[in-house]
Amino acid sequence: MAINTLRKDSASSDSRELQFQAVRSARAFEEIANQIRAELAEGRLKVGSRLPAERTLAVQFGVSRNTLREALRSLEHAGLVRLQKGATGGAFISEGSGDVIAKGLLDLHHVGSITPEQLTEARIWMESVIVREACRRATADDLELLAQNVEETVRATEEGDFPRRAEANFEFHRILARMTNNPIMVIMMDGLMGVLARYVNSIGEYENSFVLPSRKRFLKHMREGDGDAAAAEMEASLKRLQKSYLSHANEDAQTNTKRRSGSRNES
C-alpha cells in the first residue's frame, strides 16, 4: 500500500513528518479518522495542531474532498477536531470537552439504557470523591469563586429566575470538579451536568429551598478544610435532590402512560 508523506504547516506545534496511507474501504471516512487518531496517540499531533488543507489531505488519503469532510466532521463530533471557517480557518486538534460524554449519556437516557435513578446515583458517588479532593486542594481563590457562585444563586432565587438559578447550581459543581485539578473529573462532571441540565429543564421549577442553607454549611466546612463534613453535607443535599427528581420522573411516566392508554382507547 502506498504511503503518502506530508509536513504540517507553520501553525503546527510539531514539525515532524506525518505519514498517512491511502484508503480503499467502503467506509473510508472511518479509516481516515482512525489514522488521525493514531497520529494523536503517537504524539505527532497535539492540541492546537492544524491539519493540512483539505485538498492536500484528500490527495494523501486518495479520497474525494466530500469523504474527507465526512471524516473531519466525525472527529469534530467526537470532540477531537475543531473546524474553523475563514482565511485563517482549517481543521485544528481540539483540547476536548465533556460534550461528547454528555451526548452519549443523553442518548442512553433517551433510549432507556440509563434511568434517572442511575444517573443521580452515579452523581452522588462521584461528587463524594470530588468534594474531598477539592477540599484538600482548595485555594483562597477557589473558595472565593464558590462563595460568589452561592451569592449568584441567592440573587437568581430572590428574582425568581429559574434558568439562571439552575445554571448557577450546575456551575457550582463544575467549579468543584475543576478544583480537583484532574481533567478526567472535569470532563465527567461536565458530561453529567449536561444530561442533568436537560433533565432539570424538562422538569421545570421544583422545590429546593433546602439547597441554599446546605450550600452555606458546605462552604463553611470547605473553608475549615473539613473534607469529610463537606462531603457528608453534599451527599445529604444530593440525596434530597435525587428524591425530588425521581418524584417528578415517576409523575411524568404515569402521565405518559395515561396518554398512551387514552390514545389507544380513542382509536
From TrEMBL:
<dbReference type="InterPro" id="IPR008920">
    <property type="entry name" value="TF_FadR/GntR_C"/>
</dbReference>
<keyword id="KW-0238">DNA-binding</keyword>
<dbReference type="Pfam" id="PF00392">
    <property type="entry name" value="GntR"/>
</dbReference>
<keyword id="KW-0804">Transcription</keyword>
<dbReference type="GO" id="GO:0003677">
    <property type="term" value="F:DNA binding"/>
</dbReference>
<feature type="compositionally biased region" description="Basic residues">
    <location>
        <begin position="257"/>
        <end position="267"/>
    </location>
</feature>
<keyword id="KW-0805">Transcription regulation</keyword>
<protein>
    <submittedName>
        <fullName>GntR family transcriptional regulator</fullName>
    </submittedName>
</protein>
<feature type="compositionally biased region" description="Polar residues">
    <location>
        <begin position="244"/>
        <end position="256"/>
    </location>
</feature>
<dbReference type="InterPro" id="IPR036388">
    <property type="entry name" value="WH-like_DNA-bd_sf"/>
</dbReference>
<dbReference type="InterPro" id="IPR000524">
    <property type="entry name" value="Tscrpt_reg_HTH_GntR"/>
</dbReference>
<dbReference type="InterPro" id="IPR036390">
    <property type="entry name" value="WH_DNA-bd_sf"/>
</dbReference>
<feature type="region of interest" description="Disordered">
    <location>
        <begin position="244"/>
        <end position="267"/>
    </location>
</feature>
<dbReference type="GO" id="GO:0003700">
    <property type="term" value="F:DNA-binding transcription factor activity"/>
</dbReference>
<dbReference type="InterPro" id="IPR011711">
    <property type="entry name" value="GntR_C"/>
</dbReference>
<dbReference type="Pfam" id="PF07729">
    <property type="entry name" value="FCD"/>
</dbReference>
<feature type="domain" description="HTH gntR-type">
    <location>
        <begin position="26"/>
        <end position="96"/>
    </location>
</feature>
